[in-house]
Amino acid sequence: MVLRGYVPTSEETLQTLAALRLQSLNSDFSTHAPFPRLEELFPPHVLHARLPPLPHRPPAKCRGARLRVGLLAGGLWGQALAKQRAERDQRLRGRLREEGASTMAAIVEKWKLLQGMGRPEAMAAYVALVREWPGFGSTLFDVDLHASPVGPGPQRLWLGIGAKAVSLYKPGEREPLDSFCYGRISSFGASDSSTFRLSVEDRDLLFETSQVDEIAQLLNTYLASASAQRLPRPQEPPTSPPTLEPTVLPEGLCPAPEPWHQRPPVGSSHS
């Protein structure tokens, strides 16, 4: 999840995580130690984000313009454009290699500082850093939200499902846009093979996703666990005749709301 960008944190922390992984794999720094590829230690999208964006080609405004572009593309002009694209791609690849080498050098310097740290200690330090993210322990799904109180849809978001709540994140951001404890969820299910519906009190949220079944199964598991925790424990038979008044169960399946950043993280490993 770290390598795929699902743990929002600073680039400095990502380098430290990579160094801890090297310490766990190879022990103390050595020039003879086997080096994994950078993409096995550090999120590749961070390096790509440093590169300049590709130039935008404006669309042709009329049929005549499209025809002229087509004719030119078949001649010398098309060859010139192809040469420009090849040169641009070569420059970008060179820039990416430079950024990769710089990042690997920074990771190695942090690795050298970990001399003497054992594998269990390195693993514990790695998990401790990841646990600093408030969403630690959640399972994240890429979704497109089509009905949202936080902005116009469709909107690409992370749907985080944890043991205590369901949360919505903008990709790469630490704090959730919104969070719903299980007591607020009135219903959920698949509208079709690629649309998942989540009803939270008086709101219906529709998510476009390729993982409808996985989301439903995980929600079922956590809801069943939350319900079991709220059931009253068996008691000894009363010594006096029972009253005829019905027992009133507490409303909801979650405790009183508290700030998300103060909630204890759910224990789950990230690699």
Automatic annotation (TrEMBL):
InterPro entries reported in the protein's UniProt record: Actin_motor_Myosin, FERM/acyl-CoA-bd_prot_sf, FERM_2, FERM_central, FERM_domain, IRS_PTB, PH-like_dom_sf
Pro residues composition-biased segments: 234-244
Every FERM domain range: 1-233
Stored Pfam families: FERM_M (PF00373), IRS (PF02174)
Region annotated Disordered, chain positions: 227-271
Stored PROSITE patterns: FERM_3 (PS50057)
Name of the featured protein: MYO10 protein
Record lineage: Eukaryota, Metazoa, Chordata, Craniata, Vertebrata
